[in-house]
Amino acid sequence: MNSKKKYFLIFFLLLVCLLLSTTKGNIIPDRHTLYLENDTLNATVCVKGGVFLKQGHTTGYHYELLKMFSKNQKCQINVKPYKGTDQWADLVGRYTDILVVNPQDTIPDIYQTEVLSSVDLNDANQVWVVRKSDYMLLQQLNYWFGYFRQTKGYDDLNYKFYKRYRKVPLTPMKGNNLLSPYDHIIRNYANRIKWDWRLLASLIYQESKFNPNARSSRGAQGLMQIKSEIARQAGIENPYDPEQNIIAGTMLLKRLEKKFAKSDIDSANMIRFILAAYNAGDGRIEDIRTFAEHKDLNSNDWNTLVGVIPMMRERELLPEGLLKFGAFNGKETIRFVDEVLDRYEDYRAFISP
Known about the structure:
Elements: H1 3-21, H2 30-33, E1 40-45, E2 52-54, E3 57-59, H3 61-73, E4 76-81, H4 87-92, E5 98-101, E6 115-117, E7 127-131, H5 135-148, H6 152-163, H7 183-192, H8 197-208, H9 228-234, H10 242-261, H11 267-280, H12 282-294, H13 302-308, H14 331-350
Parallel strand pairs: 1-4, 1-5
Antiparallel strand pairs: 2-3, 5-7, 6-7
């Protein structure tokens, strides 16, 4: 083989390897996925149908798109609807990091040189706008979206929100406060225990998705997944009756609050302790607190307990006789607390008190 043919063959093989490498696995290189890793961003959606509530959970074309982007970038994006403020001043003033706008939403002259727009994100030519100083964020978005647009996921997203049926978005307009058919009951009993009714609604959605006939494999029943012992203590006869179930559930919440009130726990941590105990049982939470104290850590701080829980997963590593209930995985309980509170923030953004 002469030298020219040899170099041509080497060049050809290198070209084939390069082409194969761009068609396997994740096309987006690691250096692009790490720029936003562990960041928390805020996005405000100013387009109709971009984010709304449907049967108690948040959805919408731009909500789903933002969540896909955040998952790819390994960051968190808090998505909220437009609330009637000066969205451009909010963006430039760093109260939000991404604005979702329509093409007819003209950028005010005073902000023209301070913001940048993404490529068009759908057939309506809607775009995401960021501060000019965050050009790297925009670069990440455009790069990712250029790839995502070529996938079946993009087609599915457009079909879901624009092709199959027309949505009636639940936007934060006056008088639109519906979360479930049981809002009036939830409001009533939340008021009795001095809870924001939207927080109680988020807990109920987490437990049953507002299904009064829900039943778990462990025998928990109804909207708030009440067990027979709790129903008996509350004196209710039918746990599948929405009002009776909420009576029992809120009585349990009040009992847990009274229990933790005996310790010096602040209000922000109190809610987290109550939610965790509602999910795992107050005995489990007391075990975690005992273990934290054994480690000379603050047993009244939920974030500290979250850091302690992984140490409780190996039974053989636990001090003998220290814990009443033994080893505890805890992943479900941590997720439970986070999801209830995250959904509560969504409800607060959409629904008035």
